[in-house]
Amino acid sequence: MAFELFNRILVSDEDITNITVEGIEIGYEFKLQYPSYRGTFLSCIEKLEIRIDNQLIETPRIGFYINGKEVLINELAELFREYWFITDFAVLRIYGEGLEIGTKHKVEVLLRHRIPYTGYFGNYMVEDAACTKVLNVI
Amino acid sequence: MAGKVKLGISLFSLTPLFVTRQWDLERCLKEVHEMGYEGIEVVAAQMVPNYPYPSDEWIQDFKGLLKKYELTLVTWSAYIDMGIRADRDLTEEEIIQYTRNDMIYAKKAGAQMVRTQHAISPKIYKRMLPFCKEIGVKLVIEMHSPHHPEVDVWKEYLEIMRDPASEGYFGVVPDFGIFQFTPHKIAIDSYLEGGCRKEALDKIIMEHESGRSLEEIINAGDYTEYEKGVIADIKHKFSAPAKVGDLAKLLSCTPYIHGKFHYLEKNCEDSTIPYGELMESIKNSGFEGYIACEYEGHRFDIDPKEQINRFAIMIDKMLK
User: Which residues of A touch B51 (CB under 8 A)?
Assistant: First the structure.
């Protein structure tokens, strides 16, 4: 299985939207899809790096929202009972300032993931999925 | 379809359309029904929402769709996801729990068998037998490339499967990829895109098929470092295919077959897996069961529907 085939689906083509709470803007969000032919357990994500317009986003600012819950990037490794279904989007929430509506932004995502059924020879296959897209803010 | 061999399909074959949301599960079922497929395999980790704990409501809806499109759920396909934890491998008890869980939902969905992977280990496999009998579901293991019947672990599995105590609840799913002896179009395209010269690749494949070793091929030409890597890749993947005669030895404990392929030409023939000889062996054996189309040449620029349609034509022609 050539997992790199699926890199292109990692960042959804859907637009970036700002996050507001009672009219107060607290950040922005966009969607990710797991880059494979099947879903996986969140604990198989070994690394998740986000760059917006070439700037690395500090992980404490990132909320990873899936299955009705938001978790921190640093918590993913512990979530071995939480499943990311292949056609479900995870929402990446970047807390801080929102983005100006109508602008475009370069979104780069690197997701390192372990393929959990490949360890029978001692080492698991670990794949780096990278995807860059320019998304609109609406 | 001649005899009692039936045409099935693993919905995994439709991966590019499913993961990009062009086809949902119902569309997949509708299309394969219209192409003449009678039985399906669902890769639960791929197509079952809320996996590994789908809702009863989803199960009922799924069964309704199977009825609507006159399809039989032959196989619920499961993994041995031994590496889901970051700190350690799953324990024996955890592997049993995940396997039992798949079997429970397979039973609810009406599947005849659960396909698992060889990583389950002979020890755990034997431990699953009482539950197979209790719930009335077969637990079968796929023999996938680079394995073949002479691999040590498989000698052990086949002994377990042939033991009368298993009462037919165990079995092997030969994946026809084990018979592949030379690179398929998808691999060839990948080598060319990676920088391998076409004339060099033609020569490498010809020498590989004539039985030359890795060293002999490398020493017989002026190859770039990338091309030497291609030679190593071809020799690694395609040097030890199972013998066609091995299939007849497996069929007594084979309830289901994976018709693996990566690309079929317009003439509906596979030049990398000896389908003609394999299907003759199946016809002569009296095998009764499904041979499932398992298209794995996934690329977004190749139409899976056309490929699986060609597979149906190829198998139908060979079984007449």
Answer: 39, 83, 85
Residues of A in contact with B117 (CB under 8 A): 117
Which chain B residues are closer than 8 Å to A37 by Cβ?
Answer: 12, 15, 19, 46, 298
Inter-chain touch B83–A114, beta carbons under 8 Å: yes
∠ at Cα B51 (B49, B57), nearest 5°? 55
Q: Is A8 helix (H, G, I), strand (E, B) or coil?
A: helix
**Shortest Cα–Cα distance, B233 to chain A (Å):** 14
pLDDT tens-digit readout, B303-319: 999 999 999 999 999 98
Q: Sort B265 into a burial class: Cβ within 10 Å, 0-12 / 13-18 / 19+.
A: exposed
Regarding whether B139 and B104 lie in a shared domain, the answer is yes
For residue B49, which residues of chain A lie inside 8 Å, CB to CB?
85
Beta strands in B47-165 (DSSP E): 72-77, 113-116, 138-143
pLDDT tens-digit series, residues B159-190: 999 999 999 999 999 999 999 999 999 999 99
Q: What is the CATH number of the domain that holds B175?
A: 3.20.20.150
- Cβ contact (<8 Å) for B83 and A87? no
Distance CA A68, CA B118 (A): 35
State which residues form the domain around B154. Answer: 5-180+243-319
Q: A117, B80: Cβ pair inside 8 Å?
A: yes
A41 CB neighbours in chain B (<8 A) are 81, 84
Closest to A135 (Cα-Cα) out of A36, A59, A50, A31: A31
Considering just the CA atoms, what is the radius of gyration of chain B in Å?
20
Q: Tokens 């007594």 identify what position? A: B252
pTM listed for this prediction:
0.95
Tell me which residues of chain B have a pLDDT lower than 50: 1-2
B287 and B220, same structural domain? no
How many other C-beta atoms lie within 10 A of the C-beta of residue B214? 15
**B84, B120, B143: best to mutate for the A interface, most A CBs within 10 A:** B84
Closest partner residue to A85 (CB to CB) among B49, B85, B298 is B49
B39 close to B290: Cβ distance less than 8 angstroms: yes
How many domains are contained in chain B?
2
Report how far residue B72's alpha carbon sits from residue B36's, in angstroms, rounded to the nearest whole number.
12
pLDDT band at residue A87 using 50, 70 and 90 as cut-offs:
very high
